[in-house]
Amino acid sequence: MELNQIRSGKSYTMMGSRVEKGLIPRLCDKLFEFIAQRSHDELFCKVEVSYMEIYNEKVHDLLDPKGKDSTQVVECKS
């Protein structure tokens, strides 16, 4: 999870650039490399990911091709 001010480099840290990969692409590379090294006919791996943004009290799924559908953030008293 990355928390910081607007325009402080969060997206760059997480995704990187064309020249230098960020945290998420590096993690994915290592994860799939790990799976491939241990792969055999009896092994089944399922990888699921979420990439969410909370902005102005709304949650956005950044992997949703539909765009800016959002869910409202609510506080729980407990």
Characterise the protein shown here.
- One of its GO terms (molecular function) is ATP binding.
- Pfam families: Kinesin (PF00225).
- It contains 2 helices and 3 strands; from the N terminus they run ααβββ.
- It is 27% helix and 14% strand.
- The protein is extended.
- It has 78 residues and is an alpha+beta fold.
Strand content: 5-15%
Structural class: alpha+beta
Query: Largest beta sheet, briefly?
Result: 3 strands, antiparallel
Fraction of residues in H or I helices: 25-40%
Order of helices and strands: HHEEE
The largest beta-sheet arranges its strands as 1-2-3
Described by the principal axes of the CA atoms, the overall outline is: extended
Average residue-wise pLDDT: 80
How would you summarize what this structure contains?
The protein has two helices and three strands.
Question: Which structural traits does this protein have?
Answer:
single chain; 78 residues; alpha+beta; three-stranded antiparallel β-sheet; 14% strand; extended; nucleotide-binding
How would you summarize the topology of this molecule?
Elements: H1 10-15, H2 23-37, E1 52-55, E2 58-61, E3 70-72
Pfam families: Kinesin (PF00225)
GO biological process, one term: microtubule-based movement
GO molecular function: ATP binding; microtubule binding; microtubule motor activity
